[in-house]
Amino acid sequence: MNPIRSILAAACVAALTAPAGAQGITEIMRSGSAPQRSVATPSQSYPQQRPPTVQSANGQQPAEFIVALVNSQPITNTEVQTRLTRVVRENPEARQVPIDQLVRVVLERLINERAQLQLAKEQGIKIDDLAVDQAEQSVARQNSISVPELRRRVEADGLGQKQFRSDLRDQLTLTRLRDREIEQKVKISDTEVDQFIKEQRAGANAAFAPDINIAQLLVIVPPDASDADVAKLEDRAQSLAKRARAGEDFANLVRDNSDAADRGTGGVLGMRSADKYPPPFVEATQGLAPGAIVGPIRTSAGFHVLKLIAKSQPGATDTVYTQTDVRHIILLNDPKRTTAQAVAQLAEFKERIAKGTADFASLARDNSQDASAKEGGELGWSRPGQFVPEFEEAMNRLPVGAVSDPVVTRFGVHLIQVEGRREGKLTQSEQREAVRTVLREKKIEQATETWTQEVRARAYVEYREAPQS
Fold first, then answer.
1. What whole-number distance in Å separates Cα of residue 358 and Cα of residue 380?
2. Same structural domain for residues 234 and 127?
3. N or C end of the chain: which has fewer CB within 10 A?
4. Last residue of a domain, one of 296, 312, 328
5. Structural domain span for residue 352
6. What does the DSSP assignment read for 321-378?
7. Are 384 and 295 contained in the same domain?
8. Per-residue pLDDT tens for 46-76?
9. Taking a C-beta distance cutoff of 8 angstroms, is the pair 26, 43 a contact?
10. Residue 89 CB-density burial (10 A; 0-12 exposed, 13-18 middle, 19+ buried)
11. In a domain, 103, yes or no
12. φ/ψ of residue 423, rounded to 5
């Protein structure tokens, strides 16, 4: 899947795979998609018309008219056809679905999104341009390209920079709304954790995605590469894969040959749930034992050679994780202070730390707006998945001792410093917290489905004409 489009999963790619709002900022940080779910169909029917097609036979633009109203806000035929085209382009399996059914699914997705965005507006949820900027930068990093190159590719895809940023803003908005409406209310009891561990020992947790750790070697393929250039790059990737299979040290191969930004760490992506990895990576390594080399695998970024480092069930006692000792300063979202002002203040803190005129711990004690302030911002040794993805993505990019630029998350703006890293097994307490995280994510998925249906039921929806290309 194209990582550029995958971050718009809740807006387009996942139109067939998840309820509106079920995916948000997490998709900016990964290239995965949610498990398939059943999709509701409209409770009203249109007059019988010819089945619409993704592209009109004469190549003309689809006619413009209103197909539905959501609380008096229109959804147009063009919006449906644009979304439909993107869904089919990114999901080849969607072509097997009858086109009239596919159109209705896409329309229902748009209706759900529109109702949720209206609710977010009523609650005063707004996304600053700075948050959109950072999301855009994250997408560029995922693709190992610059932001200008990302924008060029977005334009080439026919999406348009304005629409791309609008979709990003919508998904950030839905994430904030979902966090307020669902995530803060979901709790996991000790009894549930105990039951999961008991079932895990009995081998009864097959429904939960395993934790995996993969290292990658990337050979980038420029978007304007000729067929001859692509063939040469594929040959290079094949040669590197052959050397890895012959027993050459994979980390050294990555450091000397990979085009990815993670080459300095040997390409190790870290132990995390399989559903947080790109689907092609998971599919390629499924059923393999740790140590296996696979690839090259072609994605929009280029050719990937992968090494499966480890695999285990969540919270397993024998799993080795990369743990990070981290501290932060956070300025919480505040109506009296804009995000830009918070960013400027933290940028000034970073400059003072770099000059040696202030130290991180003192600034955290005096300014940070969470419970860690009294400890100088110390968050302790963290495990993968412990923090929200925006924070964790920034943390994982930092060398030991480095201080980040200000990082915007759903909670506020952070200044992050990594104090150490280590490889080790989780303590019993950490194992339980890892299990709690897995169970919480599962419960959030279920709660999101129910909440989506409730928001949809409260909205006034009027169907007009059937969408047509």
1. 21
2. no
3. N
4. 312
5. 320-425
6. EEEEEEEEEEEE-BTTB-HHHHHHHHHHHHHHHHHTSS-HHHHHHHH--SGGGGGTTE
7. no
8. 333 333 444 443 445 556 889 899 998 998 8
9. no
10. middle
11. yes
12. -105, 130
